[in-house]
Every structure is written in C-alpha cells, then in structure tokens.
Amino acid sequence: MKLSARNQFEGTVTRITNGQAMAEVTVKVGTLEFAAAITEGSVKSMGLKVNDSVTVAIKATDVMVGK
Amino acid sequence: MKLSARNQFEGTVTRITNGQAMAEVTVKVGTLEFAAAITEGSVKSMGLKVNDSVTVAIKATDVMVGK
Amino acid sequence: MKLSARNQFEGTVTRITNGQAMAEVTVKVGTLEFAAAITEGSVKSMGLKVNDSVTVAIKATDVMVGK
Amino acid sequence: MKLSARNQFEGTVTRITNGQAMAEVTVKVGTLEFAAAITEGSVKSMGLKVNDSVTVAIKATDVMVGK
Amino acid sequence: MKLSARNQFEGTVTRITNGQAMAEVTVKVGTLEFAAAITEGSVKSMGLKVNDSVTVAIKATDVMVGK
Amino acid sequence: MKLSARNQFEGTVTRITNGQAMAEVTVKVGTLEFAAAITEGSVKSMGLKVNDSVTVAIKATDVMVGK
Fold it and tell me: Residues E35-57: pLDDT tens digits?
C-alpha cells in the first residue's frame, strides 16, 4: 500500500514502553531515533515487538520547522 | 527552548514550494528527506529560505508505525 | 503493510480538488464521505485519481468525540 | 455548533477503555467502528459512557489515503 | 454539543486569508490571536466571515510545551 | 529557536497529571488554561514541573473553528 503520508522511513523497533491506553515505541532509522506514541491496541493487533523491521510514517502537516 | 516534541532532528532546507495559504518545505537530515507542510505565514515570519539550517520537530503522537 | 493507525476503511475516490501545495480528496466509504487534505506532492506520487480504490487511515489520537 | 472539522459522523459509544491520562473510546457509525484516543479528563467532563449517542469529528488534514 | 477537545476558547474572527484548498483564519480570544488553517470547503459550508463569534477548539494531544 | 507553529503563547505550568506513557500538563496563559497531553518521556527530559514558565505551541492545522 502506498500511503499519502509524505514522510516514510524504514527502521527497526528498539524499545516498547507499555502504558494502559497508549504505548511509546522507539524506532531506529539509520542514526536517528524516532519516538511514536501509539495505542496499546495497535501494539497488540500488529504484534509489534523489539527488533521488528517497520516503517515510520508522518504526514507533512505534522512536521514543524524550527530555525 | 526545549520543546516537548520528542522527535527533533537538525537539517538543511533544500526546497520551498509556495502555495497560497500553505507551503511545502523539504528538509534534508543526513540521508533522509523530510516534507513539512506549513503555512505561508510561517515561511514569511521565519524568513525561511533554501540552505537554512533548521530543526525538524514532530510530536510522538503524530508518528505512525507500519509493519 | 499493517499500519498503527487504528481507523482504516476501504473506499473509492469520488473527487479531487487541486490546490497549489495542498489538495482535497473525497473518499466514499459505504454511505459515508471522508474529506482528506493531503499535499499535491502525494496526489502526484501516488497517481491518485477519481474511482481509485483506496484506504482511508486515521490515527486514534486524531478522532474527537462530541456529545 | 458547526465545526470546521470536515468529517463528522453520528454514532454510538460501544466501549471505553480507561487509562491514567488517556482513554480509548470506540464509536460505532453504521457498520464502521472508530477508535478515538482522548484524555481521561474529557471522558469525565463529558460524562461519556457506553450507549451514548455521539458525533465523531476528524479534521481533513488528519485523514491519510493509502492506495 | 460538548466536544472532547480539551481546549475550547470563545473569540472573534478577525481575518480570513483564502487559498485554493486551504484557508487561514485568525481568531482573537481576549488578547491572544489564534491562527487556524482549515479547508476552503469548511469556510464556505460554515459561511465563516470576519467578525463572526466563534469557538477555537484544539485537542490536548496537539498542544506542545516549550521551556 | 523560531518555530513554524503559528500559535505560541507564554504561560505557567499549573498542574501535571502523570500517566504511564502520557501525561497531561495544564498551562495558564493570562485567563486561559491550556491542556497539553505529552509523553511522560518529555516531562522527564524537560524536567517539567508546576510553576515553570513555558511556551505553549500549536500548529495552525491543529486549530479548529466552531460557529
């Protein structure tokens, strides 16, 4: 599936911090580390675990620029 | 200023596509290229231009994971 | 690709309104009609056109509830 | 109140999963099921409970398209 | 309608900058001025114009904190 | 750092409600009170606490208008 989110990078899950409704997933993309806050339900339904190869996807409207 | 957005990466503006209300700004971070859709007003008030050193900032809740 | 966005529905593109930086895409899912504002760049790179079968994807944190 | 969020659908709350800061609310709209991650504070201040008639509201910029 | 968006403030529209797909609406709330980027379709369907009394609504997950 | 988020207001932290993955931070700006849902990780890495002087930042695309 091609997704309209303009930013899509391939990486590896390095950490999953579980909460009650939300979890925080860390994904390493090259030398960068992304933090994703997704629902616990997503973690379970995707069977997401450390070392999984994943794609990080971010909409262009969700990217800010600081200068 | 330290910002609560968990994802902050330093890069360089490589392209600005102007629209009427919204602009699309491309930022190169190492080998990755980020697309940011920000308002024309922000481009002007920040005086944003190609080759500027900038920080890309993204909230953890705006990062999706695909597997 | 399984995506962490909790809301994913299959539908058909019924209208694309082009802008300069952003476009508005209408997707019919059963009797519901979704409006998506995505970048012109996405419309082009996906080759998106009317009658395409698509998936609408929305993060749970982007869904509000009114009562 | 008319809201600028382009996507507004009427449905019924079918499940509320409480967390500490965030809750996940499931809303059935016809045959579709929406997952909303909202703050615990909103659940309480709205007195949200299963079987409530609610409106699901989503901004067009928060809708992605996959093909 | 009570909305799950935690931040809701009453104000007055002071400016509307029209684009092709997106418009920028400025709303004055006391001494603060909010900029909202909404679709042209919303501006039209709401009949939004300068001096309208409106409510600004923002989800808690969309508010960042800088220090 | 100048940030592309169009809405930036200075205020004071009045309350922090900790969760497991997400926290809710209340910031007073003049007579308005903003609720921000940010990750626990951000609260810790910023050393955020009650009475801190902070800036609230919100992207224009995350502001809705109700009428």
Answer: 999 988 899 999 999 999 999 99
Chains touching B (at least 3 CB pairs under 8 A) are: A, C, E, F
Q: What is the pLDDT of residue D1?
A: 80
**Contact list, A3 vs chain C (CB under 8 Å):** 1, 3, 57
Instruction: Tell me the nearest-neighbour CA distance from B52 into chain A, angstroms.
Output: 8
Beta carbons of C64 and E3 less than 8 Å apart:
yes
Over 80: is that where the pLDDT of B21 sits? no
3-class SS string, chain B: CCECCCEEEEEEEEEEECCCCEEEEEEEECCEEEEEEEEHHHHHHHCCCCCCEEEEEECHHHCEEEC
Spell out the alpha helix ranges (H) of chain C: 40-46
Of E6, E36, E45, the CB nearest to D41: E6
Tokens for B34?
């980020």
pTM: 0.91
Closest CB to B2: pick one of E22, E62, E66: E66
Q: Say if the Cβ atoms of B41 and E35 lie within 8 Å.
A: yes
| ipTM (interface pTM) | 0.90
List the one residue out of E60, E17, C54 whose CA is nearest residue D63.
Answer: C54
B4 neighbourhood in chain F, CB within 8 Å:
36, 38-39, 42-43, 46, 48
Residues 26-65 of B with CB under 8 A from F: 36-39, 41-43, 45-46, 48, 55, 57, 59-61
* Domains identified in chain E and CATH numbers: 7-52 (2.40.50.100)
Contacts of F48 (CB under 8 A, 6+ apart): B4, E65, E67, F13, F16, F25, F42, F54
Task: Give pLDDT tens digits for D26-44.
Answer: 999 999 999 999 988 899 9
Taking the Cβ of residue F67 and every Cβ of chain D, the question of whether any pair is shorter than 8 Å is answered with yes
The alpha carbon of residue C19 and the mean position of all alpha carbons in its chain are separated, in whole angstroms, by 16
In chain B, residues with a C-beta closer than 8 Å to the C-beta of A54 are 65-67
| Tens digit of each residue's pLDDT (9 = 90 or more) over B45-57 | 999 999 999 999 9
DSSP string, D3-48: BS-SEEEEEEEEEEE--SSEEEEEEEETTEEEEEEEEHHHHHHHT-
Which parts of F2-52 are beta strand (E)?
7-17, 22-29, 32-39
Mean pLDDT over the full length of chain D: 94
